[in-house]
Amino acid sequence: MNPFEFNTLVRAERELWWFRGMQRILFRLLDSMKIAAGAKRVLEAGCGTGYFAGLAERRYGWQVFPADLSWEGLSCGRRAGARRLVQADIASLPYPPARFDLLLCLDVLVHFEQGGEARALAEFARVLAPGGKLVLRVSALDMLRSRHSAFAGERQRFTRRRLSGAAERHGFRILRCTYANSLLLPVALARFRVWEPLMRSAPASGTAPVPGWLDRLLYLPLALESAWIGAGLNFPAGQSLILIGEKK
């Protein structure tokens, strides 16, 4: 990921509507599927600043091991008091086989060239114990690429079929795979396919603060989606994909 993005992430992860909303969706999904049950050792592969690892650890009582390749992100985490941070390539993890009960990888596989995610998935299968759970979140649908995508160093986006197929090829049974950030899809299409091309905008971070009224307005659809997804219902399209798998 673009190292300059970490400068805005430290604040955005705590305050920006997208992060708060996607955290709510993910936690509601994990709770509804009882993913926390039986999980003790948890790896977050591609933890960035380590902020989400801390949230998950406090919420579920897990022992979370955050790992990331970027020293910039890890430095932000160290200053914030994150624990057990490790600098590592998620495609070559420094852990023994069957070490973890649960593995989280959120918005990281998109930074591999298409096909390169296979190396990371192979490592995920190696370090997970049999029956261990895999939680992936990725950016979805090529038509939603934006100037933020370019700025952040995103190299690919996924469809549900391609993400599920990649996980299955590496020995995971798919328990759930749904699109998310779906209700705002018309707004995203208008912005990314009409407005940004017309304005010929240069790549730029999309994690800058927005006015409070707009932040609340944009958060509301994600809050509604959390209830829908938590009830066991999937979305047929969206800006993100969330997959829950189990190692066979």
Report on the structure:
Helices cover 43% and strands 20% of the residues. The protein has helices at residues 6-15, 17-32, 51-60, 71-79, 117-127, 147-152, 160-169, 185-199, 212-230; strands at 41-45, 63-68, 86-87, 100-106, 128-139, 172-180, 240-247. Helix 3 (51-60) links the parallel strand 1 (41-45) and strand 2 (63-68). The longest helix has 19 residues, at 212-230. It has one domain (3-247): Rossmann fold. The chain is globular. It has 248 residues and is of the alpha/beta class.
| Mean pLDDT, all residues | 93
CATH domain class name: Alpha Beta
What's the Cα radius of gyration? 17 Å
Number of strands: 7
Strand order in the sheet with the most strands: 3-2-1-4-5-7-6
Task: Offer a few descriptive terms.
seven-stranded mixed sheet, 248 residues, Rossmann fold, alpha/beta
What is shown here, in short?
This protein is an alpha/beta fold. The chain is 43% helix and 20% strand.
Give the helices and strands, then pairings.
Elements: H1 6-15, H2 17-32, E1 41-45, H3 51-60, E2 63-68, H4 71-79, E3 86-87, E4 100-106, H5 117-127, E5 128-139, H6 147-152, H7 160-169, E6 172-180, H8 185-199, H9 212-230, E7 240-247
Parallel strand pairs: 1-2, 1-4, 2-3, 4-5
Antiparallel strand pairs: 5-7, 6-7
